[in-house]
Design goal:
Blueprint lengths: L4 E4 L3 H13 L3 E7 L6 H5 L2 E6 L10 H10 L4 E3 L9 H9 L3 E2 L4 H8 L1 H10 L15 H11 L3 E5 L8 E4 L2 H19 L4 E5 L5 E9 L5 E13 L2 E7 L6 H17 L4 E9 L5 E7 L6 H8 L3 H9 L14 E2 L5 E8 L1 E2 L5 E2 L2 E2 L2 E3 L6 E5 L6 E2 L6 E9 L2 H14 L1 E3 L5 H7 L3 H5 L6 H11 L6 H15 L18 H15 L1
Helix pairs in contact: 4-5, 7-8, 12-13, 16-17
This protein binds adenosine-5'-diphosphate.
Adenosine-5'-diphosphate binds next to strand 8, strand 12 and strand 13.
Length: 511
């Protein structure tokens, strides 16, 4: 079947990203949207758009039958699921196939094998990939959990076999806490995934989260595109990612890549995927899980390996060989060029425990310049609601060295102006100045240690005052406008050019 038109079954920045890849690949893209997303950039950027239904995901982006019907009705041959929503549901991949559509991703069997973490752990062990010490079959009850925890030695993590997004995970420090943690994790897993199966693994004290990007095509070629360092996390959710990692030498990269390609091979993987590892300070690494989809943080890999991963996904889905040069066969190595960092710009207030924020984005000034990439799913006039993930945009910086990448990120973060609601932007600016971060001394507990220090650091000269002035300006201009509602909000008619120019003049005056 020749691939001409793709349904993009997602929203936000990843929908925009996939639409761009379709267009670069010479394919038409059909967007889908929920009622409050009517004015979202992904709807405008696509060649056609289908309304799915009201805001709740269950009635829109998570409704498999509506998505498949939309693809058929608009003459699409394939569905790209993006990340989140239905991207890791084996049943959805199967339903696409049954409807005669290409699922842009791995075979359902690979999603299923990796989606059950206990099965994944068994398969990885069989393939010779080291896994975090722990159980590989679901726990029967808290008694078995306690027995296994004792054997491993505290602290341990009780984890959901179906886990994702940090849910269904409990840290247990001693015998007395096992029962409570077991019941709480089971309840949470049952609610989030409809599956309360649990396993237990050793809690590693200060590992780094290091993941390997792989691409595999239908011709049996599997390549590894180096690592991403994703240790800067909050509540097990990534905030800043970079590639390469300061902790990974070429020799370690080779070993990680071999383990990752073996992992992918063990489940017959095809398409883009990520194998996550924990790396201990002494250099041992353990398989954590595989994400059988494109990841949020994929652009850092694209920068340093000069690859368009989403275009490759589309090519592979169409049965073509991947276009990644410089490596061949399992374990084939590509080499990183320079350094890239990504900051997730989320609608969360870092000064208020990262509480999710809502509101109309009244004004947006997008950073640019050498080595800067801005992947966004929003623009001025859009309404940010609590219905979906708080990720608004990703800012990615590339430089010949880590220092240059950080310097460019700092500059770009200072150029970025978002008026209308608090975001994670000031947090990122402060991390870029933090001594431990600058030295690359990070692990998954970095924010526990550094969070208070980073957020208490004085703001960069002028910037936050300029933002306050900009906010006041925009609020002033808005006086005679009716308050925008989610369905009527439009990009402000006022002249964005004059606003940006005045803001610059103000900033110069303040510094
Ligand atoms: P999820 O699928 O919910 O994202 P993961 O298993 O990928 O869960 O783990 C998410 C994060 O939780 C990791 O990046 C790491 O920070 C932490 N984590 C998970 N397992 C362990 C472990 N055994 N020891 C220490 N930290 C862990």
């Amino acid at each position: 079947m020749s691939l001409k038109r793709v349904l993009v079954a997602n929203r936000g920045e990843i929908a925009v990203r996939v639409i761009r890849a379709c267009h670069d690949e010479g394919l038409a893209a059909v967007a889908v949207y929920s009622e409050p997303d009517r004015l979202a950039p992904h709807v405008r950027d696509a060649d056609a758009a289908v309304l799915l239904g009201p805001a709740p995901s269950s009635e829109s982006y998570l409704d498999a039958s509506k998505l498949i019907a939309a693809a058929k009705d608009t003459g699409c041959q394939a569905i790209h699921p993006g990340y989140g929503f239905l991207s890791e549901r084996a049943a959805f991949a199967e339903a696409c196939k049954d409807a005669g559509l290409i699922f842009v991703g791995p075979p359902a069997s690979a999603i299923r094998a990796m989606g059950d973490k206990t099965e994944a752990r068994r398969r990885m062990q069989a393939a010779g990939v080291p896994v975090v010490p722990g159980t590989t079959t679901p726990l029967r009850d808290p008694i078995e959990a306690r027995k296994e925890a004792k054997r491993l030695g505290y602290p341990v993590l009780v984890k959901a076999a179906a886990g994702g997004g940090g849910k269904g995970m409990r840290l247990v420090a001693n015998d007395a806490d096992v029962e409570g943690a077991f019941q709480a994790a089971r309840r949470e897993a049952q609610k989030a995934f409809g599956d309360g199966s649990l396993y237990v693994e050793k809690y590693l004290e200060r590992p780094r989260h290091i993941e390997i990007q792989i691409l595999a095509d239908h011709r049996g070629r599997v390549v590894a595109l180096g690592e991403r360092e994703c240790s800067i996390q909050r509540r097990h959710q990534k905030l800043i990612e970079e590639s390469p990692s300061v902790a990974v030498s070429p020799a370690l990269r080779r070993r990680l890549s071999e383990a990752a390609t073996a992992a992918a091979g063990a489940v017959g993987y095809v398409s883009a995927g990520t194998i996550e590892f924990l790396l201990t300070p002494s250099g041992e690494f353990y398989f954590l899980e595989m994400n059988t989809r494109i990841q949020v943080e994929h652009p850092v890999t694209e920068f340093v390996y000069g690859v368009d991963l989403v275009r490759e996904q589309l090519r592979i889905a169409a049965g073509q060989p991947m276009r990644v040069h410089g490596a061949s066969g399992p374990g084939g190595q590509l080499h990183p060029r320079g350094h890239a960092i990504e900051c997730r710009i989320t609608a969360e207030d870092p000064f208020n425990d990262f509480l999710p924020q809502t509101g109309v984005l009244q004004y947006l000034r997008v950073p640019s310049g050498p080595g800067i990439r801005w992947d966004a799913g929003i623009e001025a006039g859009n309404d940010v609601t609590l219905f979906y993930d708080p990720l608004l945009a990703k800012l990615i910086a590339w430089g010949e060295t880590r220092e240059i990448a950080i310097q460019r990120m700092r500059r770009a973060l200072s150029e970025l102006v978002i008026v209308g609601l608090p975001t994670s932007q000031p947090f990122h600016l402060r991390v870029m100045d933090d001594a431990e971060f600058l030295k690359g001394e990070i692990d998954i507990r970095y924010l526990e240690r550094a969070g208070a220090r980073v957020l208490a650091a004085p703001p960069r000269a002028g910037l936050e005052r300029a933002l306050a002035v900009a906010a006041a300006m925009v609020a002033d201009q808005g006086h005679d406008r009716p308050p925008p509602s989610s369905l009527t909000a439009r990009p402000p008619q006022s002249n964005a050019w004059t606003q940006a120019a005045r803001l610059d003049a103000l900033r110069d005056g303040l510094e």
